[in-house]
Design goal:
It is built from 16 helices and 28 strands. The protein has 564 residues and is of the alpha+beta class. Strands 11, 12, 15, 16, 19, 22, 23 and 26 form an eight-stranded antiparallel beta sheet that branches. Strands 2-1-3-4-28 form a five-stranded antiparallel beta sheet, covered by helices on one side. The longest helix has 46 residues. It is elongated. The model has no long low-confidence stretch (mean pLDDT 80).
């Protein structure tokens, strides 16, 4: 009985095991539960994806806004994120730094946090995205989303220091250009005015210069790394003039300068003439985002200065001035510090310098009165150190045409001037001048001699801030930075301060006071002429005593760009 019951139960269990009725329902239920779970996870994953994209878009815009206004980066970034309605913002971290646009540097290393000059901003955003179906699994109501972006400011400016060409004295400029370029240059005042009035765009000039120089030059940086002749520079200016109406006189002046000089044989590093800044990597013909202009005469004068910049003294003798027996002029132009270019196109922190310049004038005048039979020699030495201009900021504002502003920090050159005689080589710019009293009058037959020394100087100068608005930039307005008022009558001031030592000799019937009066009576009438000569020389060399002239030649205000 028991056996039968057991077999019956076993039979029913076997039939149940092999019974497939209702299987689809069970499997359907299991699949439905899994599908609902997958759908829940998918919905949350898609939500998180779109929340991350929304946050990344907002942080990209925040980085661009911050880079456009680095001084107020925090406020600009917060406003951009708030405008995009990013939910549950936990933190916004702003890091200023410097971005180097160098293809040879790995992308991850191009941004250096907290480095100066600051031209880029990194924005890091942390916010929370809500979970809907995944709360039970993740045991949290939201998921943290972290995004970041880095943007670099594209604001640049082109600026120049020196190039003071306000008084075009053909004789002095001919001498200076001739000394640097060789040949016998005899341009007249009309030629110089033609060149001064012809303005060119620097990138268009660079394109033409690369074409004239030839060789394997494909980018502006490659042009800066090459050597070009001053003849190439003149040819490039001629080609630009040929494409402009009403420039026949300018073309003639340029060709005259080339024909009268050895310009083809004089080569200079192009990078000492122009620094192209962030646009240096661009291929030739692609420049122009920064529109910067300057005159043909300024370019040629700068090229001549660079050509003559290897500490070489150029003596221009036999200058004829009224009331003087002879005038010998010596000019020593040094290298610009740190291979500074003449004009720099760059971001905040870029600097340009003038070269250290030493000038000597050995003047001889016929004596008067008691010294009628004697000659009076007046040795004038002027040492002008480098002036410096640094681009401190470029502000574009909402409307660059009215709001753009460029700030320069300008340090005028220190000046030392003497009536004296150097005891070491005056042309050696690496050594400070050691000046001793100079022999002014000598009459050996009477045993009469007069020595003298005078000095004027400007020292202890700090950078002064100069601001250029849009109209200043558009009009090419020069601004002059002065340390303090320095006498325009340099030679007259030196003569007034001249301390004389008189040696009368045993047979002389004169007194020291009479000799001193006669020396100054001889010199004072000719000092206005010498003052005018010094001013012309300094003007032609692009410098002025105790001053620095600066220009902003152009500004680039096309915002900021993402670099990550």
């Amino acid at each position: 009985m028991k056996r039968a019951a057991f077999l019956s139960r076993l039979s029913r269990l076997a039939r149940f095991a092999y019974d497939e009725r209702g299987t689809i329902v069970i499997m359907g239920a299991i699949i439905a539960v899994c599908g609902i779970g997958a759908l829940a996870i998918g919905v949350d994953a898609i939500t998180l994806y779109f929340e991350r994209r929304k946050a990344q878009g907002a942080v990209d815009l925040a980085a661009i806004a911050a880079a456009r206004d680095i001084a107020r980066a925090e406020a600009a970034a917060a406003a951009a994120i708030n405008d995009n309605r990013i939910p549950a913002v936990q933190s916004i971290v702003i890091t200023r730094g410097h971005y180097t646009a160098d293809a040879a540097t790995p992308a991850a290393l191009r941004f250096t946090a907290n480095a100066t000059p600051q031209n880029a901003v990194r924005v890091q955003l942390a916010n929370e995205a809500p979970l809907y179906f995944g709360r039970g699994i993740a045991r949290r109501a939201a998921y943290e989303v972290r995004t970041e972006a880095t943007a670099v400011s594209t604001a640049e400016a082109a600026f120049t220091i020196g190039s003071r060409l306000l008084s075009l004295n053909g004789g002095v400029l001919n001498a200076v250009l001739g000394a640097a370029l060789g040949g016998n240059i005899s341009l007249n005042a009309m030629d110089y005015n033609n060149l001064a009035g012809f303005n060119v765009d620097l990138f268009r000039f660079a394109d033409a210069l690369a074409l004239k120089a030839g060789g394997n030059i494909g980018t502006y940086d490659q042009l800066a790394a090459s050597k070009v002749s001053v003849g190439n520079i003149i040819d490039a200016l001629v080609s630009i003039a040929q494409a402009a109406p009403g420039t026949a006189a300018t073309q003639l002046s340029l060709n005259t300068l080339k024909n009268q000089s050895n310009a083809n044989a004089v080569k200079i590093p192009a990078g000492k003439l122009i620094s192209f800044g962030q646009q240096g990597y661009l291929a030739l013909g692609q420049g122009g985002a920064l529109s910067a202009r300057t005159s043909a005469l300024s370019i040629l004068n700068a090229a001549a200065g660079i050509a003559n910049g290897a500490n070489q003294a150029e003596v221009l003798a036999n200058l004829t001035l009224p009331g003087l027996t002879s005038v010998q002029l010596g000019v020593t132009v040094g290298e610009r510090p740190q291979s500074s270019p003449w004009i720099a196109a760059g971001e905040a922190g870029a600097s340009v310098y003038t070269a250290q310049t030493r000038i000597r004038l050995i003047v001889t005048a016929g004596g008067s009165g008691l010294l009628n039979a004697a000659a009076v020699t007046l040795p004038i030495y002027i040492d002008v150190a480098s002036a410096k201009a640094t681009l401190s900021n470029v502000t574009c504002g909402a409307n660059p045409a009215t709001d753009a502003n460029v700030g320069l920090a300008v340090t005028p050159a220190a000046v030392n001037a003497w009536i004296a005689q150097p005891s070491t080589a005056w042309q050696t710019l690496s050594l400070p001048p050691d000046m001793r009293p100079a022999a002014l009058v000598a009459v050996p037959l009477l045993g009469l001699s007069v020595t003298g020394r005078a000095q004027a100087q400007i020292t202890n100068m700090a950078a002064q801030n100069v601001s250029f608005g849009w109209s200043d930039i558009a009009n090419g307005t020069a601004k002059t930075v002065k340390t303090r008022d320095f006498t325009q009558s340099l030679v007259s001031g030196l003569v007034d301060q001249l301390v004389l030592n008189v040696n009368l000799g045993p047979l002389s019937l004169l007194t020291p006071a009479l000799v001193t009066g006669a020396v100054k009576a001889t010199l004072q009438p000719v000092t206005p002429v010498l003052d005018a000569l010094v001013n012309d020389i300094l003007t032609s060399l692009g410098i002025s005593l105790g001053e620095a002239d600066v220009w902003v030649n152009g500004v680039r205000c096309d915002g900021a760009a993402l670099v990550n």
